[in-house]
Amino acid sequence: MNVLQRYRPDPRSAAQLDGRRPGHTDGDAAVRLSDITKVYGRGPAAVHAVDRLSLTVGQGEFVCIVGASGCGKSTLLSIVAGLDTPTAGQVDTAGRRVAIMFQEPALFPWLTARRNVELALRALDVPKAQRKRRAGELLDAVHLGDFTDKRPHELSGGMRQRVALARALAQDADVLLMDEPFGALDAMTRDLLHDELDRICSERSLTVLFVTHNVREAARLGDRIVLLSSRPGRVIEEYDVPRSGPRRIDSASVANLASQVTDRLREEMRRHG
Amino acid sequence: MASTKTPPSRDATSENSAIAGLDSLELGDLTKSRDPARIARKAWSATWPKLLAIGLVLGAWQLFYLSNFHGDSDTGLVEGPGAGLANLWDQAQHAQLWQAIGTTIRTAVIGYLLAMLIGSVIGAIVSRIPPLRAATGSIISGLQTMPSIAWFPFAIILFGTTEAAILFVMVLGAAPSIANGLITGVDYTPPLLLRAGRTMGLRGISLYRHLILPASLPAYLAGLKQGWAFAWRSLMAGQLLVIIVGSLSLGILLNNAQDNQDLTGAISIMIVILVIGIVVDAIFSKTDLAVRRRRGLLTDAQTA
Prior knowledge:
- Chain A is an alpha/beta fold.
- Chain A is built from 8 helices and 9 strands.
- A 6-stranded mixed sheet of chain A has the order 5-6-7-3-8-9, sandwiched between helices. In chain A, strands 2-1-4 form a 3-stranded antiparallel sheet, sandwiched between helices.
- In chain A, helix 6 links the parallel strand 6 and strand 7 (207-212).
- In chain B, helix 3 (81-92) packs across helix 11 (263-294), helix 7 packs antiparallel against helix 9 (204-241) and helix 10 (250-259) packs antiparallel against helix 11.
- Chain B is flat and about 80 Å long.
- Chain B starts with 11 loop residues before the first helix and ends with a helix.
- Residues 1-12 of chain B have low confidence and may be disordered.
- Chains A and B meet through strand 5, helix 3, helix 5 and helix 6 of A and helix 1, helix 8 and helix 9 of B.
């Protein structure tokens, strides 16, 4: 579990640490980012979204990425998901399947909840006979068993996001990337969905890379919090979250950690001011 | 390593009921009332505008009759709505009218299906190939502004006075609208859905079939509807201009009425043409409404 140990990374040394031969991975790492750089545009107008960022996420680990605006959080997830290519550096998921969830549920509005999930199964070539049953099971897992035939617009925001979670799970992914998935939900719904996500991730031993700008959310959910600097995005600090039994968003340990992270984040923002 | 997660903070059942409770609170009461009074109210609110429209038309007709526009009411050239509808009823007793309606609808269906096929194929190809799109985009819009009747001399020289000439003009009128509808639909496919589709592993044909085409459906339907309007106008113009020997169509009946100075007869045929147009338009509107309802794109007023 060395990846969970706290260290203050210097991008260069971290790169050396992680600069193994391509294709070689130790059994413990699910996602390995080495020296990722992403530049948009070219010449004087070029924007450095991410700069030599290295990060290793262990199998079954829940890592929350926190940072102010412009730290390239979403870019990073797009790169891991293969939706975007890095300008330099390497992404290694060792052949693991990766699914992504966005702030918007991004469900197909012409399909019912069940059909949305079934389409993900279909894309994986799951035989037709099994699709319906598996989709039903997945929707049961997010407590939407009674709403399988509803279309997205008939569901509430939190329910849509749960359908999106079921669809992500249907992709049979080992790594779940979440880009502020609960950002648009009210606090009450978000709180319940945190419990849900906790349960589902431990049941399925998912590796999660969770981007948020809500520090408390990160302290509530993560095994580790990774703090990114702004423009260009780079790892400036990591926090291990002690596993001391049940956590709630309003518990003292969560609040403590959150205020620590917030202080550090403010310091970083002042640097830009 | 796998299950080093924090266990759920509360026991599963209380959490389930919390989330189920929240769900039912948020959705509210979804059951639609089957109250007969409500259904009757709904039926009435759907019917009265149509009755009013018919009333207005008949009223206008009566005024036209009373105005004695032609100045020779004794000749009986202009008849009131009563006599006119009696004429229509009389024509409906004869096979001739039905045969003409049959021919016209058959041509309409063939021409429209051809336009749909050609327009959809062109739209699909053009929307996928950007250079082609840049090159043909203005041609497609240009074709739409060309009045279809201007094509008839060309078509008649090319095909003679045959049904093919009419079909040719119908396709030229309708296909650009249909192609444009599909292209617009593909253009407006939400990028977020495309991202979601790609991460799900949808590629190439399956991306097209399961995501882009269904996402394009509303715009495509709008194109189909506009295409129908063009096709129907081209068909009517065609049947008036291209007199095919031995064939009996609504256009021919209209021509005959003109030749016989039979104003009432002409009005009867026009009513038939209007009714066909309204019925087809209603089918398109119903389909459009159904598609939008399924996707939650209706406002409350439209759903009511």
